[in-house]
Amino acid sequence: MAQYRKKPAIIDASQWFKHGDHLSVRPRVECFHPDPSANCKHCGKAVSEHGFVDTLEGGHTVCPADWIIEGTAGEFYPCKPDIFPDIYEKVEE
C-alpha cells in the first residue's frame, strides 16, 4: 500500500450557527424529520435547531457550529468544528 498526501487547496467556508446563516442550508424540519423535538446524537441540540444541505453524496444534517465548505465543483458540505482546524488553516491575505 502506498501513502498519499492531500493536495493543498484554498477553499471557501463559513461557520453555520442558525437558520439564515448560509443559503445552501435548509431547516432540518423541512426535510420531514419524524420528531423535531428530538435531540441530535452528535451535538445534543434539538433537531429543530439543525439544518440540512444537499451534497454530491446525498443530503447531510448540519449541526449548529458546523462549517459549510464549498467544494471544487461548487457543491457544499458540512464539516464538524472539532475536525475543521485539523484539516484547514485560515489563509491570510
Describe the structure.
The chain has about 90 residues and is mainly beta. The chain has one domain (about 10-85). Helices cover about 5% and strands about 25% of the residues. It has one helix and six strands, in the order ββββββα. It has one helix spanning about 85, and strands spanning about 10-15, 25, 50-55, 60, 65-70, 75-80. Strands 1-5-6 form a three-stranded antiparallel β-sheet, with no helix packed on it. Strands 2-3-4 form a three-stranded antiparallel β-sheet, with no helix packed on it. A hairpin with a 2-residue loop joins β3 (about 50-55) and β4. It is globular, with a radius of gyration of 15 Å.
Topology, element by element:
Elements lengths: L11 E4 L10 E2 L23 E5 L2 E5 L4 E4 L5 E4 L4 H4 L6
Antiparallel strand pairs: 1-5, 2-3, 3-4, 5-6
How many E strands? 6
Strand count, sense and barrel status of the largest sheet are:
3 strands, antiparallel
Count of domain modules: 1
Principal-axes shape call:
globular
Strand order of the largest sheet: 1-5-6
Average pLDDT value?
Answer: 85
Class from secondary-structure proportions: mainly beta
Q: N- to C-terminal separation?
A: 38 Å
Taking all Cα atoms into account, the compactness measure Rg is 15 Å
Poorly predicted tracts of residues:
none
Provide the helix percentage: under 10%
One letter per element, helices H and strands E, the order comes to EEEEEEH
Relative strand content = 25-35%
Count of helical regions: 1
